Amino acid sequence: MDPTAATVTTRAASPAVESDPSPPHAITFTEVAQQFAPRTGPAFTALHEVNLTIGATEFCSIVGPSGCGKSTLLNMAAGLIQPTSGQVHVQGDRITSVNTRIGYVSQDSNLFPWLTARQNIELPLEIKGFSRADRRRLSSEWLELVGLTGFGESYPHQLSGGMQKRCSIARTLVYDPDVVLLDEPFGAVDAITRSVLQEVLLDLWSSRRKSVIFVTHDLNEAITLSDKVVVMTRRPGTIKAVVDIPLPRPRNVYEIAETAEFAEIHQELWGFFKTEIEMAGPPPTDEQAGENR
Amino acid sequence: MTAVQETGTSSVADGADAELGRQAKRLRVPASAGVHLGRLAIVVAILVLWQLASGSLLPKYLISSPTDVIHRLYTLFATGSVWPDLGITTEELLLGYGIGVVSGLVVGVLLGTWKLAAALLEPLLAAVNGIPKIALAPLFLLWFGIGLGSKVAIAAMTVFFVMFYNAYMGMSTVPRGLLSTMQIMGAKRHTLIRRLILPQLTVPILAGLKAGVSFAMIGVVVGEFVAADSGLGYYVRNSTDLFDSPGVYAGIILLMVLVLIGVGLVTLLERRLLRWQRP
């Protein structure tokens, strides 16, 4: 397979993006590098030379082998960690501290166990100073949007893993952030629930058009959801390729993988992905590729 | 610094905690009617043995007897002579407990969120905590006088350390994921404390509240033993000096009942606060 196929644009080697990042680029990473110095073990470079822009209404997935720094990129955009060098801008502002204008859905649902589903969804609204009536109205609306009507008064431990995810997504989107970061949000749920959640997410995104970065191990998931897929190298992570996904929308998450175009894109993407995994260890079979973690 | 990795480990730890919690629940024996009857039977058996042993196996002035003790309790309440002692001990207990709980909690949360202060003060607190509190009782009497003040001070200090360590150690169990989730929502320091740290501390705080009741009582009674002119501890000690064994046992039973009432109230609070944990 030819890595320079027409649908592929390799931007990793291109020079840094404009020094004054402004909309429509919602998120820009400029020459970002990250070194970690753990208390035990030697210091290591997690990321280097990352240049990436994500548009204001773009759904962008990041795939790459474990430990390649995918989550680190998200944490930088969220301002939870600062890059060792380089800059991260979100909506034109350089991120130097916790970014409170974004929404972040993490691997764990991170629901507050002492709050009911509804209270969890209302918490960010409360922090942001919404009135009681607005909180109530919005939480009801979002419980319905993510299919949790009737579970508002349940505590997280009373919800299934998939329901916890939906609650977590509702809690993130309820305050209408323009930028949404998702870190392997569906990693721990079964395949069927995962498809359902993907559909929920795509529906929400289609109607609200956020700028999304979606980190995943799953190539199929990345292709199904995204406008473009960023393939990262193994550690020290950098961008290997940016692949546009020209599949028409709206997409049917249950059937899209059966189309010829999907297979074609998957093959191209897998070409980049495979070499990274081969270098890291024994190559998985094609079957495992989508589920690799 | 390695946010990614730490998120990973904290979630593993959470899972382990939750699993331990579930196991603990499974291990807790359900109190069926049979169990209640069995417990009653054991108490009755002990009382009967006590009654039989009294005056036959062991001299009465050493172990008194259930009937004598019950009679003494009846007399104490019938004549009303118990109220001044019961009242003063309850007051000391409540004041010492309250001051100890609040100050321990405040200092624990403060040092838990303020790393520099923790680094500076923790060794000092550990050293003071290393002193057997009873050894300080004479000193406290000197400082706070023979009355209520010295007992409250001893009880408060004892409870302070229980609460402080429970709250302070509990702070390190706050999951990083929940913390960053709340920071991203825009929560400021006071919101973090109120909506994340205090709820997260519910379990250790409740454990401290429970243990604190008996610790407070130890402090109060020690104070009353060393020097006092009223209180149940004083009554017990005075009865001992007079070889009045029914008085000793009656006093001890009243102290026990006070602690049980306190623990019972905390348990009610616990049921309310931990609703979210129940399966």
Descriptive overview:
- The complex is a heterodimer of chains A (293) and B (279).
- Chain A is built from 8 helices and 11 strands.
- Chain A is α/β, with parallel strands linked by helices and 293 residues long.
- Chain A has a 7-stranded mixed beta sheet with strand order 1-11-10-4-9-8-7, sandwiched between helices.
- In chain A, β5 and β6 form a beta hairpin.
- In chain A, α2 packs parallel to α4 and α4 runs parallel beside α5.
- The radius of gyration of chain A is 19 Å and the shape is globular.
- The N terminus and C terminus of chain A are likely disordered.
- With 279 residues, chain B is an all-alpha fold.
- Chain B is built from 13 helices and no strands.
- The radius of gyration of chain B is 23 Å and the shape is globular.
- The two termini of chain B are 36 Å apart.
- The N terminus of chain B is likely disordered.
- At the A-B interface, α1, β7 and α2 of A face α1, α9 and α10 of B.
Low-pLDDT residue intervals, each spanning 5 or more residues of chain B: 1-21
Number of helices of chain B: 13
3D shape of chain B: globular
Reported for the largest beta sheet of chain B, the result is: none
Based on secondary structure, the structural category of chain B is: mainly alpha
Q: N- to C-terminal separation of chain A?
A: 24 Å
**Into which percentage range does the β-strand content of chain B fall?**
under 5%
The computed structural class of chain A is alpha/beta
Largest interface: A-B, 31 and 28 residues
Question: Strand sequence of the main sheet of chain A, in spatial order?
Answer: 1-11-10-4-9-8-7
Q: Helical content of chain A, roughly?
A: 25-40%
**Cα Rg of chain B:** 23 Å
